[in-house]
Write a structure and sequence with these properties.
Elements lengths: L3 H10 L9 E2 L11 E9 L2 E8 L18 E8 L15 E8 L25 E9 L8 E3 L21 E2 L6 E2 L3 E7 L10 E2 L2 E7 L8 E9 L8 E2 L1 E2 L1
Parallel strand pairs: 2-15
Antiparallel strand pairs: 1-2, 2-3, 3-10, 4-5, 4-12, 5-6, 6-7, 6-8, 9-10, 11-14, 12-13
Length: 241
């Protein structure tokens, strides 16, 4: 388990030095499904591949249902980046842009998609799915902790076309995470793929929690399971294959 204050401070400081293309990590820092050992972001043509390997079976563990939205948990594999949120349709400089694969049994935040294929688009939050999120600090989530940034009532910031309607800087683009034993991978296209070249990134496994009162801050990063770099310095570099 990692200290959220350390993580927040490192993220806000931005990427570190030159770094390497990938991040190799020691094992034994978290429960095996969330124990990060290797993290990469690569591009080929117009497609970027976000990949994270763990020491156990990736995606095997999901949150215990709470039976209601308030106070419910989210498990996530997260790639924080140095990319500006504007690259995926948010306001420029809105916060820390991260791609995440998430699962949460108590609510559904992908209204355009039917991940479990049962004909109901509103009942499959427990199926692993992808989000872009914009992160920022909020002491209400804990000292030095991060949250998915809230949209204040009455505000109308720039948002991606697949924004799910929640009062958060979150996107539900529908790119399906693929779990292959000890790794999770998300592949997604970028019209301006060159903008990713050399961007910094890291790998994080984490638990998030919905506010028990269902108001801002709505979704806090409550528990950091593991950090690929150990200090959230974003040492990885996006490279072309």
């Amino acid at each position: 388990m990692r200290n959220t204050m350390l993580v927040a401070a490192a993220l806000l400081a931005g990427a570190g030095g030159a770094g390497a293309a990938d991040i190799k990590s020691g094992s034994g820092n978290a429960a095996a499904p969330f124990d990060v050992v290797h993290t990469t972001i690569t591009t080929s043509g117009k497609v970027a591949t976000f990949r994270m390997a763990v020491s156990g079976a990736a995606g095997q563990s999901r949150p215990t249902p709470a039976g209601k939205l308030a106070g419910s948990d989210v498990f996530a594999y997260v790639w924080p980046t140095s990319l500006d949120p504007a690259i995926v349709g948010f306001e420029k400089g809105a916060g820390i842009l991260a791609l995440a694969a998430t699962a949460h049994p108590d609510f559904d935040d992908t209204p355009l998609f039917d991940e479990n294929g049962d004909g109901d688009r509103a009942n499959d939050g427990n199926v692993w799915h992808s989000h872009w999120v914009v992160l920022g600090p909020d002491e209400s989530c804990g000292k030095g902790a991060l949250k998915v940034i809230d949209i204040p009532e009455g505000a109308s910031p720039r948002l991606p076309a697949t924004w799910p309607g929640l009062p958060l800087l979150i996107d539900s683009p529908g790119w399906q995470p693929v779990f292959d034993g000890g790794a999770v991978e998300i592949r997604l296209p970028f019209a301006e793929i060159g903008a990713l070249a050399g961007a910094g990134f890291d790998g994080v496994t984490a638990g998030l929690r919905v506010n028990a009162n269902i108001h801002a801050p709505l979704l806090c990063v409550a528990d950091i399971f593991d950090v690929a770099s150990g200090d959230l310095s974003l040492p990885g570099k996006v490279t072309s294959q």
